[in-house]
Amino acid sequence: MWGSHMLGGQFVTLLIMAVALGMDAFSLGIGIGLRGIRWNHMIRLSTIIGIFHIIMPLGGMYAGGFVSGLLGHVATAAAGVLLVLLGGHMIYSSLRGEDAQTFDHRTIWGTLLFALGVSADSFSVGVTLGMFAADLLLTVLLFGFFGSMMSIIGLLLGQRVSHKLGGYGEACGGAVLLVFGLLFIF
């Protein structure tokens, strides 16, 4: 009973984090969607984003497990600070209105660069989760699913809404990460 309660709490936490990390792909997808994207490019881009949202936190979790073994109790505070910085950076970037699309997303290299860019945050969060020994399979499946689905939703929605919503999406994702970071610290 106790184990299932802990897993349920971990699931909710990982679900919220997956959605928060997917907000970056969602908001940038809106920007690309506003410029127009063909259906096959949309599928390719969201699939590669999903794959990167699996690979990046996986690498981060292995690194985080190693760091946790070295640092012990300091790891919790370090993980919290990392999430606060990451969330703060996402909010700051959205408020500055940085344009993440400086390349052609239709080429394979442009697609890979875009996917790497929106998935880089998941590596840092993976490091944090590795310090807490989060469930590996659950983490990468949730992150991959939400990274992919939120990017395709953003691409589709981008064809229908203003550019401002994209910035708010990234800011919301950053706020969630910032709150989790503060909870880990305090």
UniProtKB/TrEMBL annotation:
Transmembrane intervals: 12-33, 45-64, 70-95, 107-130, 136-158, 165-185
Keywords assigned: Cell membrane, Ion transport, Manganese, Membrane, Transmembrane, Transmembrane helix, Transport
Claim: Ribosomal protein is one of the keywords in the record: no
Localization: Cell membrane
Identification of the protein by name: Putative manganese efflux pump MntP
Membrane topology value: Multi-pass membrane protein
InterPro entries xrefs: Mntp/YtaF, Put_MntP
Annotated organism of origin: Paenibacillus algorifonticola
Highest taxon of source: Bacteria
GO cellular component, as recorded: plasma membrane
Signal peptide location: none
Family: Belongs to the MntP (TC 9.B.29) family.
